[in-house]
Amino acid sequence: MSEPSHQSANRWRRFSDWDERPLRLDRFAVEDPANGFAAFNGAKDPKPGLVIADGKVAAMDGIAAAEFDMIDTYIARHHLDIALAETAMAIPSTQIARMLVDIAVPRAELARLAHGLTPAKLAEVVAQLSSIELAFAFSKMRTRKTPGNQGHVTNAKDDPLQLAADAAIAVAFGFDEVETTMRVARNAWSNALACAVGAAVGRWGTLFQCSSEEAEELQIGMAGFTSYAETVSVYGTEKAFTDGDDTPWSKAFLAAAYASRGIKMRCTSGAASELLMGFHESKSLLYLEARCLCLQRAMGVQGTQNGGIDGAPLASTMPGGVRELLAENLIAVWLDLECATGNDARHSESEIRVGAKILPYLIAGSDFICSGMGSILAYDNSFNPSSFNGEEMEDFLVLQRDYEADGGLTSVGETRALELRRRATDALGAVLEELGLGQPSEAMKRSVIVASGSNETESYLPRDVSFISEEIKARGINVLDVIKALTKRGYKEEAQNLLNVVRLRVSGDYLQTAAVVRQGHVISAVNDPNDYGGPGSGYRLNEQRRSELAAIRDVLTREEVLRTEATYAGPEARRIRYHALGDARATGPKTEIVIGVSPAFGLKLFRTLAGHPLSAVLKALSDGIAEKGGIPRIVRMRHTADTSFLGLSAARLAGSGVGIGLQAKGTAVIHQADRLPHHNLELFSNAPITTLDHYRRMGANAATYAASEMPEPVVVTNDGEAMGARFHAQVALIYAIETSLTEDGAKPEDIKIDFLETA
Amino acid sequence: MARIESVADYPLAENRPDLVKTARGKALQELTLDAVMAGEVTLEDLRITPQALLDQARIAALAGRPTLGRNFERAAELIAVPQDYLLKVYELLRPGRAKTKADLLEAAKTLRETYSATKMAAFVEEAAEVYEKRGLFTFRF
Q1: Per-domain residue ranges for chain B?
Q2: Residue A629 CA to chain centroid, in angstroms?
Q3: Rounded to a whole number, what is the distance in Å from the CA of B1 to chain A's nearest CA?
Q4: CATH code for B81-141?
Q5: Can you tell me the ipTM of this complex?
């Protein structure tokens, strides 16, 4: 019997608070190497080793050639460069680990060295690096200099209109590659056509993939709709491989098949897939992935997507699991493979864990930071939610701006977004009509254009889409038919953009390692190699790119703050009138409380940060003072705008010796004449959440102190809001207006006020 | 003199357009929208050619990526292989599809003799040898 933990009286209730955090939806697993739950140190991980006899590998990582499984055989024959392997293997792992983080050792030298290293050796080397060293080494070793990103474009209805609109948006955000998949397998052709059209809106060069069954994916590619593929999975144990219904040879054959059709291709691997499939051989995530990666280089693919991928959530349940993902990404680029670094399948319900996971990749840069960021809402992501989805797009854009780190994306304004969605849905509608595939109504298109996600659309449903898709396939419609349809209907720019992408395959330039298209040019590890060699080298933001990253939505400017303040001036003028009476009197009656207001109070600034008109604040304070028998007097300070000194100066002028300092933004203090400047009676520093009732009670307390009594201090409670984040930019701009009006030695001025309207 | 002297020739479409021709002999600049509308460009013109893959293989090797180069060389041989047969060989290479080593050797023979795909044929023969050793020619449900 166990007692229900929530009701237990004998429990520190902080644990109940923690129980409610999203983090607690994540389940964590104990390290258990024998059962495959080990990130770095598997129960049966072999020690690195290589024996070469007669120019052939006689044993590798402790296994004799006669005992090799298919993976060992493939690696020994096609990955290892026998001419340099013995020398390379003889270098101590610690020394190679240091070379990886040494800016004086060129990337090319390390990449060449890797041709002679076995999986166990590669794993042993990277395991010696801390997380920061892994990220740094990754930054140095990644293949293409310019970082990039990949986005998912899918929706829960397979609606082609929405796919077109969302593809256009993904292109505008700057994704170098866009990947789609379907809820219903037979909708592949429709998805492919819709995304191809959408991705041709706005600019050209975004590569596009339709993830589906191998043979169909190849056919869709041959029809010209898609330009890359990444569904070719490999595994680190023989049983997992054959259970996945392939072998290293069948996958390598497929790799050649894609290249023969002019389609860019990368493999998929990543931690924990073997564990998920039940064939881990008691080996660590890292060692098994090192095998996968050697195999991929051996097969001659240009790149990989790894870093957990679908196994990332499982890897992340283990101690060091997230560090292991970094380590396996490092092995990939060290082996000179293009690396799409995972960060797709969301590994946690905790936004903090998600944000923390992306950071090393963002600041290190990556060929593709996410191998599928959800450009659409999480529920529309047919691959399952990504680390970042449409919901979190702006968080990512701000992270880029915070760190001045290029995550490949750029903000898109509201007007532009709407134009692109209109254009894409119209273009797709025209293609569907022209090819006799459908007649989408204006209402359907309109619903898609403004919809954030498919829950809000009145458009095609999966069943409708199946008819379209099967017709595209049955009639053998290809990309040239689409280009012609676009041209006939006046979408010449889109037709040209689409033709430009298909034309890439004639030269095959984009088949080279880490190729993407930027401004109409293919860049890859061949002509844009990562040349990092210390500060000042490698990828750096140029001024233009830096300003693109800075240009997020809704940023404050001084002009805007002043303009906003000016709009409050008129209404305030109808509520209150200030009469300057000249130099302030030195003292007054024993019951007098002086309210010392700041220089710009009511002259240039008219509202507190909580939005209260200053007239209402003065009224509330005055009422509170009067309630307890005090007499308020208003004095404008001109020598200071600081709350403490406003309060202290007011107190020194007051007949009671008690004063209230009040800034225009609403910050207030109760002070006493004989106290030290920062040793006040009560302080109200959280102006944005200070209510008029608080000000009234503050006035009452001031009068109570004046009567030499001890009131209950007024406490402004908060909900833990990050006030600084919400208000400090505005505060700094407003406060500068106050300080610009101060003058050394300027005398306080008595003010008479008339309230023109009653509340 | 080799067609490709250094990686400076890359990207070929920009730096060596003289080397880039479609399967029907068209130059890249002939693949215009007007030509598409006039029916002068077919899907055949938008496919990669064996020569382009061999050129890319050379660039990959010059860039220090010999295995990628070898994949492009195998791919160059597969261009002539029709889609159906391509997928048939892929299927045969999957676990348990070939019931005997002879099935794979037969495919290798076809690749070599019908399509002159000598490297790919050798590759399939290598698979046959390894599959036999690892017991993959077994019946799978």
Answers
A1: 1-79, 81-141
A2: 57
A3: 21
A4: 1.10.1510.20
A5: 0.98
